[in-house]
Every structure is written in C-alpha cells, then in structure tokens.
Amino acid sequence: MNKSKLKKTLVMLLAVGAVSLSAFMGLAGPDFKPAVAAAGLFGKDAPDHLTGSFTTIVDDQGEMISLMSRITHVGDQLITAEGRSYRIEKVQGSRATAKFLGMDPQILAYNDFYARQEAPVLKNLAEQKQGSVAVYHTHSDESYVPSDGSEAIPFKGGIYQVGKSLVDKLQGKGVQVHYDQTPHDPHDNNAYNRSRRTAASLIKTSPAAIFDVHRDGVPDASYYRATVDGKSVAKLRLVIGRENPRMDANMDFAKRMMAAANNLHPKIVKEIFVGKGDYNQDLTPTALLIEAGTHTNTREEAALGVSLFSDAIPVVAGVAPAAPTAPATPGAGGKAAGGAWKALGWILGITVVGGLGFLLISSGSWENARKRIAGFGKEFTSFFGPRRPVRKRGNTILRGSCGEADRINDPRGDEVIKEVKDELKKD
Fold first, then answer.
1. Cα 426 to Cα 267: distance, rounded to the nearest angstrom
2. Terminal CA-CA length for the chain
3. What is the mean pLDDT of the chain?
C-alpha cells in the first residue's frame, strides 16, 4: 500500500469513528457521561471532587471527623462548627488522617460574640462594596438525584434552583443580588478557569460578598440531613482555597459566616474545609465556596439549607438595608396633640379658678376683687415700658404700645393728635 492510499484509509477510519461516536452519544441521551473525563486520562486538570468517590477523614484515634468527595492532600485543614481545628498529616487512598491542633480561638470568639446576639454591621465594608451580593456556579451541571433524576445535568443542573433560593431569600430582605447563571461545563478543574471570567465580571459590580454554590458528592444523604423547624434540611460546608496568597481574609470571613449562621440556625454549617487550590477567592477577601448538601439529598433540602444560611449574610457582609420607619397610625398625631392641649387647658382652668378664689377671699368682696384686677391690669401694661410716639398718616392716627399699633380713623385729624400728645406729656 503506497502512502497515498494509506493516508486515505486513515482519513476514512477517523471519519467512521467520529460518526460512530456521535451516533452513540445521541442514543445514550443527554444524561450520559463517560466514567473517566478526558482530562483525567492524562492526569491533568482532574476535577477536585468526583461524585460517588469520597474521602473519610479520621483523627489520631481513628474516629471519623468528616466525609467529603474531595481529593484531600497533606496540609489541608478542617475546622468544625464547635471550633475544633485539624490538619491532614497523611493520605492513604480514600482515607486521610488529621492531627488535632486545638480549639480555634477565632471560632470560639465569634461563636460567643453571635451567641450574645450582637449585630455587627461592617459599615466600612458596606460603604466600599455598595451593599450587594453576587452568586454564580462553577460546576453548573451538579444536580440532586431524588429531585432531578440524575447527579449531573450538563449546563442546567439542579444547582441553579438551589442558587435561586439563595438569591430570592436575599432579595426578599431588600438586598441587591447579581446572579450570573453562565454555565462552565465540563466538570473538571478547568471549570474554575472558565468561571474565573464570570467571577471577575461579578467583582466589577463591587459586591460585599460573592458565593460560588456547589453540592458535595458523598453517597450518604444522612451525613448532611438535619431537621429544622420540622422541615428536612441539607447542611452546608464552606470551602477555602489555601493557594490564595490572601487566604487569611477569606478564612476570617468564612469563620464569621459559620458562627453567625449557626447562631441563627444551629449547625446549619457543618464545617470549614481548607483545600488545595484557590477557587478564584484571590479576587476578593469575601469570596466563599458553599457546598449545599450532597447529590443524594433532595434539591428542596439543599435549597432550604442555603435559604437559612442567607439569614446571616446581610449582617456579616454589611449589606442589611436600613430598617423602614414604622408608619404613623392615621390620626395618631392629631389625637396626641389634642390630648396635650386638652391637658394644658385643664391646668390653666384650675389655675385661673384657684387664683380667683384666693383673690375673692383675700379681698372680702367682689367689688374689692374687681378693683384689684383692674389695678393689676394697669401694672401689667406698664411692665412693657412707655408708650411709643404717635405718627400721623393722613387722617389715620397710629398709636404704638407694647410693640403693636392701634389704628384710629378719626375725621378730626390734627385735633385728636394734639389730644394724644397732651396725654403723653401728662404721662
């Protein structure tokens, strides 16, 4: 076979292979996904977690601390809701051993702080970020089997409905939310490179906080399930990337959020996991990755979980809107004013009656009392000083006294003026 025929044969084989693969994918349906991603075949850009494959994290005594479908590495950390801090020292297959580092002092302080129901509003942060929140999804295919029928629905996973629950709850509180629903499939670590463009675009809106909403992939739904107010809820995990050079700020925000949310709804946040990666959190110190339940929880459980979590966001992120002024009850102002004048009238009335009674008794008769009142009137008038000079304006005489003027229209004109002047001379 010459080179020309060989080239034609290879082209034909490739064409047949492509058509066959296309036909198979069409028959398999939209829910089909290969057992191993192409990226995984080459060991590059493998996803940070695979649904169904999980790691059990235990302490030095072999007691389970956590379950997660994430790939763990030596140096990763875990902080429980109570504040117990661990660092992974050894990883063997699907089992990781973590060393207890002690109680995290920040978690203890924040737990105590929020338990006393103080409401810290980060005013400087709120002013800087203009009081909005941003939400997006790096793994846009993630879904919930009981509700969605599949663990993954490419480009339109059930995770969008969970994110919308978070958005709706915040908007219901009067918080402005920027929700970007751009898909970032396929589900590999390059998804974070693709979602970085989305996150960077959201950062331009100056949000007070930005949340990348995911779900875990451990098979045991009960690991996340809890009952709150008689309803079944999926708990959350907060994830921080330790390859972010400014990780400390994101970590502090995560601790605040966990403490505040758990104070409002006990244990709604299970833990904080610090893993290998940055998860685009270097873009802002208030960026968090949230895992809402696992694929075996219902979507409704996960939606309720993030909805409860959202109650703590306005206070911690400083985006709580100003409390509305309570509307006045119609007519309440008039009634209050009327009541005040009525009370004043009663006081004045009692004072006048009492004064007249005292005057009558001390004078001995009504006639003497009348004379005293007349004399008091003259004394009272003189208290304001001498009367002002009279000014003529045509046939109108202006006579000033006590800062006011009396107008007297009299046809005698100059004669009346002379009489008034004479009276003033006598005074």
1. 95
2. 145
3. 76
Please give the Cα distance from 89 to 106 (Å, whole number): 23
Instruction: Label residue 88 exposed, middle or buried (CB < 10 Å: 0-12, 13-18, 19+).
Output: buried
- Three-state SS string over 32-101 comes to CCCCCCHHHHCCCCCCCECCCCCEEEECCCCCEEEEECECCCCCCEEEECCCEEEEEEEEECCEEEEEEE
Q: What is the pLDDT of residues 99-120, one digit of tens each?
A: 999 999 999 999 999 988 644 4
Q: Please list the residues that pair with 231 across neighbouring strands.
A: 228
**Maximum distance among all alpha carbons in the chain?**
150
3-class secondary-structure state, position 89: strand
In this prediction, residue 356 carries a pLDDT of 56
Specify the pTM. Answer: 0.65
Decide if domain 55-317 falls under CATH 3.40.630. yes
Across the strands, what pairs with 102?
Answer: 85
Among 262, 286, 270, CA closest to 111: 262
Mean pLDDT, residues 158-166 taken together: 98
SS3 145: helix
238, 290 in Cβ contact below 8 A?
A: yes
Q: CB under 8 Å to 320, separation ≥6 — which residues?
A: 121, 173, 175, 314
Q: Which amino acid is at 107?
A: I
Question: Per residue in 26-82, pLDDT tens?
Answer: 433 433 333 333 333 223 445 666 677 899 999 999 999 999 999 999 999 999 999
Q: Name the residue among 94, 71, 75, 72 with its Cα closest to residue 86.
A: 75
**Cα–Cα distance between 401 and 408 in angstroms, integer?**
13
Three-state DSSP at 278 gives coil
Residue spans of the domains in the chain: they are 55-317, 345-383, 386-427
Kindly report the length of the chain.
427
Burial class (CB in 10 A: 0-12, 13-18, 19+), 28: exposed
